[in-house]
Design a protein that fits this description.
Elements (H helix, E strand, L loop, with lengths): L1 E3 L9 E3 L17 E3 L13 E9 L5 H14 E11 L5 H10 L2 E6 L2 E5 L2
Helix pairs in contact: 1-2
The structure holds S-adenosylmethionine (SAM).
Length: 120
């Protein structure tokens, strides 16, 4: 599992973080956290190599193009049948739904606090 913008809040996930706006400085990364220091719009992993991608409190609001790039990168990285779950600091889950559809995800819906989509 990849955690886009993760700061160790999901046990056992790989935290994809470029350390631009770390909230938990001093406690992240803690011993045992796995970190991939990278921009989550351009992750250095192969196509179709990941089962689940989560993004908690993504800093979403910068530009529309930015939000689209995150969803397209999630689509590239996921295997067929893989699931993405995102919510944004600004706009919560609903702000993510259209971007997920435009990136090609299906079964796009709000589930709990997340916008969820499946790669067909
Ligand atoms: C609002 S914090 C959320 C942290 C954590 N997911 C949580 O819910 O507590 C956003 C995180 O995204 C990271 N971040 C911002 N832009 C990024 C980018 N382009 N690529 C990777 N990480 C990024 C920041 O460094 C920060 O750790």
């Amino acid at each position: 599992m990849l955690n886009f913008g993760g700061e160790g809040e999901i046990a056992d996930a790989i935290n994809v973080n470029n350390f631009t706006q770390v909230l938990r400085s001093g406690t992240f990364p803690k011993p045992g956290d796995t970190v991939l220091r990278a921009d989550f719009r351009q992750v250095p992993l192969p196509d179709a190599s990941v089962d689940v991608i989560v993004g908690n409190r993504l800093p979403w609001s910068a530009t529309d193009e930015w939000a689209g790039a995150i969803c397209r990168e999630a689509f590239r990285l996921l295997k067929a049948g893989g699931v993405v779950r995102l919510f944004a600091s600004t706009g919560g889950a609903t702000s993510c739904l259209d971007w997920l559809r435009q990136a090609g995800f299906v079964e796009v819906e709000t589930r709990e606090r997340y916008a969820q989509g499946v790669k067909p």
